[in-house]
Amino acid sequence: MNRRFISIAAIAFATSVIAFAAQAAEVKNIVIVHGALADGSGWRKATEILVDRGFNVTIVQEPITSLADDVAATNRVLDLQDGPSLLVGHSYGGMVITEAGNNPHVAGLVYVAAFQPDKGESLFDLASSKPAGGMNIRETKDGQYLYLDPAAFAGDFAGDLPKKDADFLARSQVFAAKQAFAAKISEPAWKTRKSWTVVATHDRSINPDLERDMARRAGSDVTEIAASHAVFASQPEKVADVIEKAAKALSH
């Protein structure tokens, strides 16, 4: 009788442990790293969609003063999450998540019209390997930071957004330190984490063929969306669909 009771109790305990483990592995945290020449506000619509679908979303407002600073800012946010996180990066944010993705809290990576570097590569290396349509990038007077000419912002960055939205992005852009773009990756997280990639087929900031090549090299699951570099803002539902797909795949 006692043995039978112990056996039943053991089975019940094992079942509860398995159920708890499955629940603990469910990916409900989405951490988004915005790109250079923009800030996190452009992710509002995509964030609201994901929150409505039951996800906990946090946007890292990294300073873009150096790659190391931006990785540190991302790790601070990741360390605040309860449970595993899906790390999402746009444009230069792809450089950041490739390093920060090694954080043990990270379950997977989503690259949205982003750089997806390998070990020893910098943003400058990748951008020069397959130039895009051309961006009117300018230097600040001190020669340390880069920005996109506001007059050219819509055409170069956000050609499929309403003018007022593109104008706001131009006005709120975050200047990027040159050293952030020159920094090289040490250990790419996509080599140990499953990854997904959104290719923006009308991208004039990153060559879409470069996005495809980087995703192929990393073995990423690829979704192509007919959109500008600002695909996260112009096609928020489609981008949210990819993020949700990734989170669900990781949860199972």
UniProtKB/TrEMBL annotation:
Any Pfam family: Abhydrolase_6
Domain AB hydrolase-1: 30-242
Record keywords: Signal
Signal sequence annotation: 1-21
The organism's place on the tree of life at top rank: Bacteria
Transmembrane regions: none
Protein name (Swiss-Prot/TrEMBL): Pimeloyl-ACP methyl ester carboxylesterase
